Amino acid sequence: MTHPFETFREKRLAGNEKALDTDNLLTKRFFSLDKQAYGDGALDAKTKELLGLVASMVLRCNDCIDYHLEGAVKAGYSKTEIDEAMGVAMLVGGSIVIPHLRHAAESLEFLFQEQQQTK
Q1: What mean pLDDT value characterizes the chain?
Q2: Per-residue confidence at 35, pLDDT binned at 50, 70, 90?
Q3: CATH number, residue 56
């Protein structure tokens, strides 16, 4: 059975391909800007993943949460570090963030299990 996170990855990839199959320069530039924003700068890319995660949780975007959780795990953050960042998100966003915290906890469990299997 396919895990919901794997389905998210597939849908995101397919959706990105369709979105970028355009001559619209604004769309292409926006996608490029996103990549540039999360690269190393005055802040390193690793730190920016946690910033993106917290912002995504406060904005209550599960797709964005999954995107940044995957980036945070790949960047080498521990579950304890990610949990602390998610706690900040809940403090800033309030109790309405709790359903997204639940979603994130399930996704994070999958990502760390997947990481263990690939070692």
Answers
A1: 96
A2: confident
A3: 1.20.1290.10
Residue range 7-16: mean pLDDT, rounded: 97
CA distance to 22, 28, 65, 95, 98, per residue, from 91 (Å): 40, 35, 16, 8, 10
Residues 58, 60: Cα–Cα separation, whole Å: 5
What would the two tokens of residue 67 be?
Answer: 């995107």
Please give the helix or strand (H or E) that residue 104 lies within, else none. helix 98-117
**CB of 68 closer than 8 Å to CB of 56:** yes
Secondary structure letter of residue 40 according to DSSP: S
Residue 95: how many CB atoms within 10 A of its CB? Answer: 8
Give the residue numbers spanning the domain of 68.
Answer: 4-117
Residue 27 vs residues 41, 65, 107: alpha-carbon distances, Å: 23, 21, 28
Tell me: the pLDDT tens digits for 64-105? 999 999 999 999 999 999 999 999 999 999 999 999 999 999
Q: How many domains does the chain have?
A: 1
Report d(CA 17, CA 29) in Å as an integer.
14
